[in-house]
Specification:
Layout (H helix, E strand, L loop, with lengths): L33 E2 L16 E5 L2 H11 L18 E3 L17 E9 L4 E9 L8 H16 L3 E10 L9 E4 L1 E4 L15 E3 L10 H5 L11 H14 L7 H4 L15 E2 L5 E3 L16 E3 L2 H10 L3 E10 L14 H32 L2
Parallel strand pairs: 2-5, 2-6, 6-13, 7-10, 8-11, 11-12
Antiparallel strand pairs: 1-4, 3-4, 4-5, 6-12, 7-13, 8-9
Helix pairs in contact: 1-7, 2-6, 4-7
Amino acid sequence: MSRQTDVLTLSAIDPVAVQLPAINWASINQTAPQPAAPQPRQPDDPLPRADIVVITWTSAEWSALDHVFANSGSPRGNGVGAWDKDWQFYRRNTGSFTAGEHGDPLWGTFRVVTVAGATKQWNVILFHSDAHLQYQPYIDGLRAMVRTILTDVQPRYLYSIGTAGGATLAQALGDPVTTNCAQLLPGKQPNNTDPANGETFTCAGWYPPTAMFAPAQRLMFQLSDVVSAPELQNLFERLAQKTSIGPLTLNDLLNAPLQPENLGAPTVHSMPGVPLNTSCDFSMAPGSGSTNFAAYEEDDAVVGEVAQELHVNFAFIRNVSDPVVPDHTASGTIIAADIRRNWAGLLYDRYGLITASNGALATWAAIAAS
């Protein structure tokens, strides 16, 4: 499994047995976002108007989003729980797009919260999407969903958030990355023939305010609390059960972004104008990293394309759920692509909720500073 297939398949390994703690907003002189009570409605009713839309994707990302924005006063463990009862279905203008890959109802679920900002109380719609670039209804469905959401809500700002692959060796496991730019890369059918392939979509003239990133970092989960040498050795043994690794050792897969001693200070990497790599083929950075992209993910260029078309300011906040994976051993032997993908998938499976919570906190920080 991976950040790409989270909603489709069972985990290859159990998530780490830890709860996200209740968030101490007072420690940074802030107040918790306030969830609105669900209102009576039908799934095909329009969404309510709001200032901001935040879209997220996988199940781990959804839980983290709810924890930070709606239920931050309680600890949060892995999996879906009673908290999801306050999320309401939305299926407006689905047309011929009847369901996702495994029959998931389109377009997804939502709830409304308010966030105290620097200039006003912001009304925010949180949206958990069941439409994705990498599976049915593919790129046309994803465009239709974003267009319908934005047409209903008429927001000033749109954030797409969630997990991602790291781009550079400076981006540690659990670090959030923020940008206002994404490039669409050709992938599998039917996306590979789309005319937008190769295009880059940038929100010109706006970027999320960064003033609250530093305080938010103090609330973020330190991955050093759960990532240890024995923990990583256990993951490596699971990798060996999953795929043929030959003489590869754990040390061959360890680098700066994953060393436990580097995971004690989550950092938001603000990268305006540096595009995300958006691909439905689970694209990964080379083993030495890349400065061409801010991170590697699967939906945001399409989100940005539609937001740009509808004149809505947009940004992307992606947490590093799987950092750069080495592609050569210390002796120069090539590490096979399937080994690298499976290692990245194990890291996501194990720590996805934790890393996603850091990205959700970075998103809160951008709104709180607005």
